[in-house]
Design brief:
Layout (H helix, E strand, L loop, with lengths): L15 H9 L3 E6 L26 H4 L6 H16 L3 E6 L9 H12 L4 E8 L6 H10 L4 E9 L3 H6 L6 H11 L5 E8 L6 H12 L5 E6 L2 E2 L3 H7 L8 H14 L5 E4 L9 E3 L6 H15 L12
Helix pairs in contact: 8-10, 10-11
The chain binds iron/sulfur cluster.
Length: 314
């Protein structure tokens, strides 16, 4: 398979930055918003512990006192990206915890506030697949008539044993149900997967990639499993009860995943970020640029691209 022309980039995968430039004809940046949501997997509705890799502190902003309003956060983010990145348009990204976990009227008013800001051309909402009632999906569809809309569903793995062991609080079927209810409505779906989860083999991880490749999903975030202080994974790491991935293993697994995914699936992320003050391992994961460069180099070494092993189901 030759490299697809529509990527219009110099990379071996279809990155989000290029996708947005292709779509809007200018630089577009996502502005992270913490709207003060919590999560049913933390507030006692499903559990109080959260997912095994998740630290409960939320955004850095939340540590500093009362949260600024959505419009203030957007204004602040815009100033930064206009000055440092020459950004022209923005996507309001409701990122922290579960951003559809609240009464419909509250959700609508927060999203409306974000979309009313100058130069905000889109909305992206991160959530859990068990937290999206049809009425909220209808709202996203309504926004999608005028804006570029993404909903991000955390999946992490298709394997029930893994989902149980990391305390996700939902199964794979719940994810499929959310995707089915969202697809075909002009709403872009992004999913998150984690590479390096305890008990998973490379075969397990690639099975997850193959299944995601066959679903009506438009984008993906691939995360490296991090051990962070204040998480179950972090505790297991400190007790020496868990093995974190080596860099070479991660890089080569991510390249295998990229080869399996369809060429048109937008890659929103290829590794993970973690706050330095709570970061435990793997040490090599802190150097994000090095990880990204190593993935590029490995694809170059293979003379390979995203999508070379993608198989369309007939
Ligand atoms: S669903 Fe998200 S916010 Fe909630 S505990 Fe899991 S990772 Fe954390």
């Amino acid at each position: 398979m030759p490299k697809p022309d529509f990527w219009n980039n110099s990379k071996r995968h279809y990155d989000f930055k290029s996708f947005l430039i292709n779509k809007f004809g200018c630089k577009v940046y996502k502005l992270q918003i913490d709207a003060g949501f919590t999560c049913p997997n933390r507030d006692g509705t499903l559990s109080t512990g959260g997912c095994a890799y998740c630290n409960d502190r939320g955004s850095r902003l939340r540590q500093q006192g009362p949260l600024p309003s959505v419009s203030e956060q957007i204004e602040r983010g815009k100033k930064y990206y206009i000055k440092h990145r020459k950004a022209a348009k923005f996507i309001a990204y409701f990122q922290t915890f579960t951003n559809t976990y609240g009464p419909y009227e509250k959700l609508k008013s927060l999203y409306d506030e974000a979309l009313a800001q100058d130069d905000v051309a889109g909305l992206s909402v991160g959530t859990r697949p068990d937290c999206v009632p049809d009425k909220v999906i209808d709202l996203f569809e309504e926004y999608a008539k005028d804006y570029h809309v993404w909903v991000e569903y955390g999946l992490q793995s298709i394997h029930e044993k893994t989902l149980k062991s990391i305390n996700r609080g939902h199964g794979f079927e719940t994810f499929l149900d959310a995707v089915r209810r969202t697809a075909g409505r002009n709403i872009n779906i992004c999913t998150h997967i984690i590479v390096g989860l305890p008990g998973e083999t490379r075969k397990d991880i690639l099975e997850t990639a193959r299944v995601v490749a066959g679903l009506p999903i438009n984008g993906i975030k691939i995360h490296l499993l991090l051990a962070l202080k204040g998480t179950v994974i972090g505790d297991l790491y400190e007790k020496g009860e868990i093995r974190m991935m080596e860099k070479e293993e991660y890089v080569s697994t991510v390249c295998d995943i990229l080869e399996i995914l369809p060429p048109e699936m937008v890659i929103q992320r290829l590794t993970a970020d973690g706050y330095r003050d709570i970061y435990l391992a793997p040490q090599w994961g802190i150097n994000k640029m090095d990880v990204l460069n190593s993935i590029d180099k490995e694809l170059e070494r293979r003379d390979s691209y995203q999508g070379v092993n993608f198989k369309k189901e007939s």
